Structures are given as C-alpha cells and as structure tokens.
Amino acid sequence: MEKQVIPVLEMSCAVCAATVEKTVREMPGVAEATVNFAANTLQVVYDPKKISLKEMQAAVQAAGYDLVISDNAEADAADAEHRHYVDMKRRTLGAWLFGVPVMVLSMLFHEPSTIWVWILMLLTLPVLYLGRSFYISGWKAARQGRANMDTLVMLSTSVSFLFSLFSTIYPQFWVSLGLVPHVYYEAVAMIIAFVLTGKLLEARAKQSTSASIRSLMGLQPKTARLVDENGEERDVPIGMLRPGNRVSVRPGEKIPVDGVLLEGSSYVDESMISGESEAVAKQPGDRVLAGTLNQRGAFVLDVQASGADTVLSRMVRMVREAQGSKAPVQGIVDKVAAIFVPVVIGISILTFVVWIVVAGWGMFPYALLSAVSVLVIACPCALGLATPTALTVGIGKGAQQHILIKDAFALENMCRVNAVVLDKTGTLTEGAPQVVGEKLYPDFDRYAPVLLAAEMKSEHPLALSLAENLRQRGYKPAEQVADFESLTGRGVVCTCEGIPFWAGNQALAEERLKGVELPEGYTIYFGNDRELLAAFEVKDALKATSREAVEQLKRCGIEVYMLTGDKESTAAEVARAAGIEHYRWGVLPDDKERFVAELQKAGKCVAMVGDGINDSQALARADVSVAMGKGTDVAMDVAMVTLMNSDLLLLPRAVTLSRKTVRIIRENLFWAFGYNVVCIPVAAGVLYPIGILLTPMWASAAMAFSSVSVILNSLRLR
C-alpha cells in the first residue's frame, strides 16, 4: 500500500470535500481517503497494483473537481490556486462595481413599469456572469445527484432573478391578481457580490493557515552544486541528484541534501531542524541534513538522500499528513454536512409554504424573500472549515516549534492527558553519562579489553559512556569475545577464551556472584563467575530545563512520574533534582508497560515519554506516545508526537498547543452550528411579528462573514 497527499482543485465547501472523499474511497484498491477542505488536499492510502492516480483523477474530474498529480504537484497546485485567487479578486471587484449601482437604483426605482427597472436588469446580467462559477458548480453537482453550497447560491439567485425578470416583462400578471409587482435585482447582485467577497477572504485566510508548512518547505534549496568526476562544479536541480553523487557546499549556504562529509570541515546551524541553537562541529564522516545552514567552512559531501527522501522532506510530509487527518469530532460534522443542503432546501420550501398558508397570497413578496434568505444564509462552509483550519494551523505551529504531531487523534488525545510518565536517561537527563567513581580489583587490567568489547556492543547510554572512558585510558577491545547477549534492563554477558564474563547492574552482580559482598553505591559491576573485577559509578547530569518542564506540567494539572532501570539512590537523586514526587527504580520494559496500564486502570489519560525504541512497549500502551529525538531517529515514524530536540520544555508546550487547538475547534463548531441554528429561523421570518425581516442581501453578507470568522478564529493559534 502507498500513502500520498494530493492537492485538490475546485472545491467550494465541506459538501464538495465529502464528495471528493466518497468518490475516491469507493474506488477499488483504495483503503483510506481523507479530504482536508482547509488545505485543499486528499490523503489517500491505495494499492498501486489495483488503481492508479490517473484513474482517481478521472473519477474526481467526473464528479466536477480535479486532482493535481504531476511530478511537481505542490508547485502546480500553488500556481493554480494563485491564478484562481487573482481571477476571484477580479470577479469580486467587478461584482461590486455593478452591484452597488443596482442597489442604489433599486432604492430609487423599484416599479417594473419604469425604464429604470430594465436598466437594473441589464446591470445585473454582468454580475450573474461574474458569478458563473456558482452556476457551473451547482449544475455539475445536480447532474451527479448531489447538492452543495453553490447549489444554494444558484437556487436563491436564479429564483430571485427569474421572478424579477417575469415581473419586469409582465407586471400586469401580478396587478390582475391584486398584487404589487416587485423586482429583486439588488438581492441577486448583492448575494453574488457578498458571497464572492467571502470566498475571496476565505481563500486569503486559508493561505495563512498553511504558512507554517510553507516555511518548512522553503528551508530546502531548489538547486545544488554537483561535483563531477573531474572535480568540476555545476548547479543542478535537486531532483537530478542520486545517492553517491558529490555536492559542494560553501560558507553561508543552506545544505541541499542529506549526506556525509567527505572533505573539509565546518560548523552547521541545525536549529531549523532540531531547535538546538548552538552550531554543531562537522568533520569528515559526520552526517549533515538538508535545510540546515553551513556557517564557516567549505566542504564536499556524499549524497545519501535528496528531494522527498531527506529528513526535512519527511518532516514536511508528516506534517501534511497530520494536517490532512481528521479529529474524531469531525465525524459528526461530516454527517451533518452530508444532509445539510437538502435539509436547507426543504426548510426554504417550507418557509414559503408557511408564509402563504398563514399570511395569504398578499404576503407573496415576503414569502419569496424569506425563502431566498434561508437559502442564502445557510452555510455549510463554516461547518466544514471549523475543524480542519484549526488542525492545519495548530499542527503547522507545532512543527515550527520543533514539535511533530502525527495526526489529529494524537492532538486531541494530548489535550486530555493528566498523567505523564518520563523515562530518566536521555529524557530528564543529558543521556551522556560520565564515570565519576570506580573501584578496581587486581585482575582488572588483564580483563579490561573484554569489558570494553562488551560495552561497545551495548546500546545503553551508561555502557557507551564507560566504553568511551576505557578507550580514553588507552585500552583496546578484545577480539575473541563471543556469545554476546544483552539482558534488557540488567546488563550484558559474553565469553572470552572460554571464560564467561558479565557487566551490569547490582541485581545482575548479585545473581552471578551469590554470597559475595558487593561494594555499595556503584552503577556498573564487572566480573566473571568467580570474582568481581571492577565497579563503576556512572552519573548522568540532569538537563538544565528538566525541572522547569516538570513544574510547567504540574501547573497544567498533570501528574508526573519517572521510571528508571537504575538503582534506588540514583533514581531518588534525579527525582529530587527534577521536582518529581512519584518515581520507580529498577524497572524493566515489561514493568514500564504494566505501570502505564495501572495508571490507565485508575482512570488516567497517560502520555509516555521515551526515546521511541527502548521504551517501545510502554509507548505502545500509552494513550499518547512522545519520543525525544534529534530529528533523525526512527521515533519520527513510531511515536504519536516527536520532540525534535532534547529540550523537555517542548513537552508542556505541546500540551498547551493541543489544549488551545482543541479549544479553538470547539469554539469554531459552537459558532458554526450556532450560526445556522439561530440565523436560519431568523431568515425564515420568525421575528417578523416584532418587525424584523432579514433581506437576502444581508443574509448573504452574514453567510460570508461566518466562514471568514471561523478561519480568523483558527488563525489566533499563530
């Protein structure tokens, strides 16, 4: 199965988005299809052996919309949207240029018998032409047996214009019935002008919701300086580069690809990826990432990944997919949107009938105006934009702050978290322990190479620190080490020249050396089955921001727990320094998972924070999994939320962002639903007994404002 995010064109409302989504989802070979109306994208999971993107595009085109599936889809979609925006701006200006005179003249001359009414009709025709997109879209939807927002605009303006045209040509018909002939050209012109204005403002505001993702995309250069076999350099597009190519980078330039330094050295600013402000020294053999800034030296690198395969592109792709996902609450909105337009048309017809039945044919003009106002004021757009605009802005804002949120489900769950479980090493602490004390026995020098070889094979930060310490002392790893085995959460065992050796925590030492008195207060013990050879105290310093991060989490009403495989004294010292009251020591991966499950049984919504690999069981069990990473870790793929640097302060920031985003979604949905619940009855005329009747012109203005207000509310997250 493949997953792709594809730009969609020609959508005008939430009903359009639902139509595209349903069209693609029902095709054979498609497993999932989700349309984000705010971002104008389709996220699809499909089997390329059963269906192609071309076939999807053809089906979507038949439904009246389009997909952009070119090699440069992002740029092509951006160009199409820009052309659409420029065209809409031109049409909106034209609608107002003709619409305002129609409105002014209507106030002065509204009797069909005068020549001015014919002038009103002629001035309205250009406005109808400028609003032709509503009629084209509405007609396409009708041919498919569907109805969307454009259907409402098409019906309301068509009914108003045709009624006015009939009254202009045959005013005697109404006079013979004892009724005063009326025309509503100003309603037609102003409905189109206001709706076009709303769409223009909506398009402009929607561009702002994607500003964060565009800023990420803008980090990667479009060209690179390729070094050929003769050592000559030439500029080429990024798309031409392949793994194994060599690329030259000069001081002050952005690095165009992911690669490894071959020649030269430099300091690289990686803050745009990791958030770490200090430049990182790079030597031959070190890895560099696309989008980061080369500060000082010039170097040549070997290309490992370019274009869509770079870490930066993976980040952009992950954010796009997250923005395209749906929050659970969106399911309710989708169900409402599916029946919204037919229900509104039904209410409009009912409004007309009730007016005539209750007030009689003498109130025909008011019945018609009210029915048209109901069609105009109903707005599925506000409902459709309520959730995706907030998600798009919130997830994009998180990416700018080096917080990668995998999907809307993770974002919504994060806001409910009331318990956070923190791994100690690398999360609360620096993850770069140092040997601060030791006790060496007589045979240690003889067997130190065995310890070095064993610890070099371990992935635990304490083991790696001890190995580095031994290397600095001049020891070389033994070559005859065999039968290596890692005992998760305890240590390692191996053999050398037939002799079994082990290195690990106190529990492992007590198991291997039963009856032997061990020195207290050490972290790593080393020995064989006969004797203890050494004991080392390895400490990992607390990160500078860990205590403040814990305090901020507590202020958010979140209980903080720490789990570690270390001994009690080390755990107590770190917990005290970090301000954590609840902690457990000597825990294994299974214990961490059980602890998370215990909290969940107690009614807690639990976030587990770890490195994305060693804590995988607990991360999988937690309601929200959070990985600490530098942006190149596989944690980007496995965790719901990835903090792109080592600063734990990103965690309370992620919680706050989640809570704000979910609050904005709820506000948007409240106003979108509330707007329709309140305004549709007002448009139908329930307040007419107290002298209030909404005209179609002001109904269209209110409809335009509702969509824009939802987007502007979402933009507060920025």
What does this structure look like?
The chain has 718 residues and is α+β, with helices and mostly antiparallel strands. Helix content is 52%, strand content 18%. The strands form five sheets. A seven-stranded mixed sheet has the order 14-26-25-24-15-22-23, sandwiched between helices. Helix 3 (73-108) runs antiparallel to helix 8 (185-209), helix 4 (115-130) runs parallel beside helix 8 and helix 13 packs antiparallel against helix 25. The chain is elongated, with a radius of gyration of 33 Å. Mean pLDDT is 85; it is low at 631-635.
Low-confidence stretches: 631-635
Q: How much helix, percentage-wise, in residues?
A: 40-55%
What is the CA-CA span between the terminal residues? 35 Å
Mean pLDDT: 85
Oligomerization status of the protein chains: single chain
Q: What general form does the structure show?
A: elongated
Order the strands across the largest sheet as they lie in space.
Answer: 14-26-25-24-15-22-23
Largest sheet: 7 strands, mixed
Q: How many strands?
A: 26
What is the gyration radius calculated from CA atoms?
A: 33 Å
Strand content: 15-25%
Give the structural class: alpha+beta
Number of helices: 26
